[in-house]
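Q: what does this look like with shikimate-3-phosphate bound?
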Amino acid sequence: MNAVKLTPPTGPVRATIPLASSKSESNRALIIDALTNFRCDLQNLSTARDTQTMIRLLQSGDPVADVLDAGTTMRFLTAYFAVTGQQKTMTGTPRMCERPIGILVDALRTLGADITYLKNEGYPPLQLNGFSPSAEANVRIRGDVSSQYISALLMIAPTLPNGLTLELTGAIGSQPYIDMTLEQMTYFGADATADWINKVITVKPSPYTPKPYTIESDWSGASYWYSVAALAQDETSELELLGLKAKSLQGDSAIVDIMRPLGVESTFTDTGVLLTKRPTETALAWDFTHCPDLAQTVAVAAAMKGVVLTLTGIESLKIKETDRVAALQAELQKIGAELVEIEPNHLYEVRQVATTNQSAATIETYDDHRMAMAFAPVSMRQEIVIEEPGVVAKSYPSFWDDMARIVDVQAMQAGTNVAG
Ligand SMILES: O=C(O)C1=C[C@@H](OP(=O)(O)O)[C@@H](O)[C@H](O)C1
Ligand SMILES: C=C(OP(=O)(O)O)C(=O)O
């Protein structure tokens, strides 16, 4: 078992964190670039494994596209390879083959893609057998399972002979990710409009225009530093996060507002954002429907500060890298807190149940980068061991290097007594 042991800092926390760039923005830019025959000049692409996998698979002539555990890579490439008529087997990790894709496959079939399931109906692996465009340009699609299906369809829509009209049904989750897709498409010359009142998105057929594009730093990755600032014991602590903008395409920039009641003030500078400490409130209620990737970060920060956190909008967490609700329930206990389901699959509460200062709680990470990164800030207040720290490579490969700027990060190898 590999692990890292993090030891609390002794004085104030003061560091400048370079951050990874956004894998969400990167993976969209890469699909659009591919649709211009790779004529865009993309700058600051993410080093995240999800993005590196996207780059590799776009360049590969291999008939098998193994996306590993990258959801956006699976969904965006399925749509891209399908409508560009490439015969590919789409597969991934065992967990990826448990993450649903039927909603996207049904929509692509309506548009003329020939797709078969190789194992379980509705799940990867898939076989893409070719594309003969149908006259149909209207697709109804559920908005409450994953926005990634919608983004995948929108990005390929300008290449369809009749464009695409998407009618979204039911509740819409992760909407800022759809807005990000539309903004990036529009930047590259697409004619795409969203009518959010009637939940209809229309994309006209027209080629993308190749242009230079620079990816912003990753706000989801920034959230862990917000948690570090929230949990830092010394009131004079401050962190500078580089490459973030006040006006971002990323919905996870909501962390600025979420963390204010948890004691973090944000000041935007020419180079990024400066985090300083402010007074903490006793309770916080947040709807994570549009920023699901922040839920783990905030749950751990609230648990450690003894702030009662009411969460809604976390239904989609069950179909991500792991069942994140179950994973949080199991691991929060180890830091003296609990995640209680108040209303089935809707309303949850995080409460601190013990103010213990257990030494070196050992946190399992469930093949989920966000479990590792969400629990790392606990090290502001107590020693903590994080198992399988390599999971962070999915979105933020340099996370532990950045963490080592503020705490002692000690690698522990297989067979070591990590609780020692
Ligand atoms: O489009 C994207 O880049 C993403 C959308 C979200 O997924 P869902 O739409 O499935 O919530 C988010 O959780 C994921 O990390 C990235
Ligand atoms: C859910 C995530 O990614 P994906 O769905 O792209 O695998 C994530 O990064 O938290």
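Residues 3-21+217-412 form a domain with the UDP-n-acetylglucosamine1-carboxyvinyl-transferase; Chain fold (CATH 3.65.10.10). The pocket of phosphoenolpyruvate (ligand 2) is lined by residues 70-72, 293, 320-321, 370, 395 (CB under 6 Å).
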